[in-house]
Structures are given as C-alpha cells and as structure tokens.
Amino acid sequence: MSGKGASTIERPSTPPRASDHGRSRLGDITRPVQIDRRITRQRRSSFVLAIVALAIAGALAAALFLLPIQTYFNQNERLDQRRDQLSQLESVNDDLRNEVARLGTEDGVREAARESLGFVEAGEHRESVLPLPAVPIDLPNGWPYSVVNGITALRRNPPPPVAVTEP
Fewest 10 Å CB contacts: which of 36, 87, 147, 151? Predict the structure, then answer.
C-alpha cells in the first residue's frame, strides 16, 4: 500500500526542493529552543552534575584507598591482641596438661576421689564440719530476750571509743 494514505505524517503539497535535503519534516519540534525560553539553564544542570560526579569520585577513592589503608594499619593492633590471647590459652593448656599428668598417677587419682567423691580409705573416718547457721536477730519482746536484743545490738553497732584523759 503505497501512496498518500499510508503515512500519518502530512506530506508537503509541493515536492521538496534541493535546499531541503537533509532537513527533517519534524523541524518545528526538533529545532533548538532559545536560551531565554528554556525551562532550566544548562549551566545549572552542569554544575549539579559536576557536584554529583565529584561525590561519586570521592566515594570511590575512599572505598579503594582510604578503607584498605586504615585496615592495614589496624592489623598490627589486632595481631597483638590475638598474640596475647594465644599466650593466655597456651598457659591454660599447659596447666591442664599438668593436671592431667598429675591425675594420671595413683596419688592424683586418690586425691581427686577424696576431693570430688568423698572417698575414704579403709581405717579412716570422715567427718564433715558445717559452718554454724546464722543466729536469728528477731527475738520476741520480754524479759530474757530484751537483754539478748541489747547485747546483739551492741555487738552489731559498737559505741565509739571514749578517749580517757588523765588528770
């Protein structure tokens, strides 16, 4: 289907001249807008674009250079901390090895059984002495208890020492 009805763009009634070669039929839409009639100035958008580009470049520089350098310098501090932890763990391991070696002997087994299991050998007698319970402080009111309350109050809060002066 060729001809005038196949296109939605109106064709000029006169054929194009030789001077029109290379021009668009949409010339009114694509022609440049005068500077005073533009919505935004190109200079402002270029300035904002330059600031955004500098911010992105700064972020990239920090990510590529500053952070790795900071990590590099912090490595020595971390290594010192890990060495301290390692030395502490090695000392604990040495103590545990000595304990295992001691418990591997007959005397060590006997001592461990006495401490943890309460082992008693033949002919021995074991007695457990428990600490005394706390004495009750709240005694009833009345004659024999009021004296005891006074004694316990003095023992809990002794009077200040009195300075004796000689005449």
Answer: 36
Q: Is the pLDDT score of 29 beyond 80?
A: no
- For every residue of 120-167, DSSP letters joined together read --TT------PPPPPPP--PPSSHHHHHHHHHHHHHHSPPPPPPP---
Geometric angle at alpha carbon 65, from 62 and 70, rounded to 5°: 90
Q: Tell me how far apart the alpha carbons of residues 148 and 140 are, in angstroms, rounded to a whole number.
A: 10
With beta carbons less than 8 A apart as the criterion, state whether 143 and 134 touch.
no
The first and second tokens of residue 17, run together, are 């001249």
Which helix (H) or strand (E) covers residue 102, if one does?
helix 67-103
Per-residue pLDDT, averaged over 132-155, amounts to: 79
Q: For residues 125 and 159, what is the distance between their CA atoms, to the nearest angstrom?
A: 46
